[in-house]
C-alpha cells in the first residue's frame, strides 16, 4: 500500500515540479520563497510591516504567531519527520534542482509553518487573508518546484500547520 501511495504521489509531484520552466528567473523566484530552507524570514518581514504600518492596539497576535510557528516547526520537523522517515523526491530526480535538506520530507515544515502563520495572521487581519494564504501557497509550491517535497508532504504539512494554529487560537479564546 505504501508503495502504491508513493507511486501515485510521484506521478502527481513530477509534473507539478516542472509546471513552470526551470529557468534562471523561476529558479530564483521559487528559491526566494524557500529562502534556502528558512521561510521564517518572509513572515518576520510581513510582521515587521504590519507592526510598523498598522495602528493596532492589540499586539497579542505577535505572541500567538510566534507560539504557533514554534510549535508547528517542532511538531513537523522534529517529531513527525522522524516518525514517517520519508525520503525526499530529489533523490529520485535525474538532476537536482536545488540544494534540499537531507532530513526526511514528510510533513513539509515549510508548508506547516506557512499555513500556521497565514492562519494566525488571517484571524487577526481578515482583509489581507488572501495575501497571507497566497504567500503560504507560494512557499509551499516552491518546495515542490525545487524538488524538495512531494505533494502529500505539502498537504500533510499544511494540515499540521492549520490544526496547530487553530488549536492555539482555540486555547487563546478559552483563556481570555
Automatic annotation (TrEMBL):
Drop me one GO molecular function for this one: hydrolase activity
What does UniProt list as this organism's lineage? Bacteria, Candidatus Roizmaniibacteriota
Does this entry carry the keyword Cell cycle?
A: no
Keywords noted in UniProt:
Cell membrane, Hydrolase, Membrane, Transmembrane, Transmembrane helix
Q: Where in the cell is it found?
A: Cell membrane
Q: What is this protein called?
A: Phosphatidic acid phosphatase type 2/haloperoxidase domain-containing protein
Task: List residues traversing the bilayer.
Answer: 28-52, 61-84, 104-123, 130-146, 152-172
> What range(s) does the Phosphatidic acid phosphatase type 2/haloperoxidase domain occupy?
61-169
Q: Does the keyword NAD apply?
A: no
Record Pfam families: PAP2
> Could you tell me which species this protein originates from?
Candidatus Roizmanbacteria bacterium CG09_land_8_20_14_0_10_41_9
Per the record, the domain of life is Bacteria
* InterPro entries listed in its UniProt record: PAP2/HPO, PAP2/HPO_sf
| SUPFAM superfamilies named in the record | Acid phosphatase/Vanadium-dependent haloperoxidase
Q: Which GO terms describe its cellular component?
A: plasma membrane
Output the SMART domains linked to this UniProt entry.
acidPPc
Kindly give the membrane topology term recorded for this protein: Multi-pass membrane protein
Amino acid at each position: 500500500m505504501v508503495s502504491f501511495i508513493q507511486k501515485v504521489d510521484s506521478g502527481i509531484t513530477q509534473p507539478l515540479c516542472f509546471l513552470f520552466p526551470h529557468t534562471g528567473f523561476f529558479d530564483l523566484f521559487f528559491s526566494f520563497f524557500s529562502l534556502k530552507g528558512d521561510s521564517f524570514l518572509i513572515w518576520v518581514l510581513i510582521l515587521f510591516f504590519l507592526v510598523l504600518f498598522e495602528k493596532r492596539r492589540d499586539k497579542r497576535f505577535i505572541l500567538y504567531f510566534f507560539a504557533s510557528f514554534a510549535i508547528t516547526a517542532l511538531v513537523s520537523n522534529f517529531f513527525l519527520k522522524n516518525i514517517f522517515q520519508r525520503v525526499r523526491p530529489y533523490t529520485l530526480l535525474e538532476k537536482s534542482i536545488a540544494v534540499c535538506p537531507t532530513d526526511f520530507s514528510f510533513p513539509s515544515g515549510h508548508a506547516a509553518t506557512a499555513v500556521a502563520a497565514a492562519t494566525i495572521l488571517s484571524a487577526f487581519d481578515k482583509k489581507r487573508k488572501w495575501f497571507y494564504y497566497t504567500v503560504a501557497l507560494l512557499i509551499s509550491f516552491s518546495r515542490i518546484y525545487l524538488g524538495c517535497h512531494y505533494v502529500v508532504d505539502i498537504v500533510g504539512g499544511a494540515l499540521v500547520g492549520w490544526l496547530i494554529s487553530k488549536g492555539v487560537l482555540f486555547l487563546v479564546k478559552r483563556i481570555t
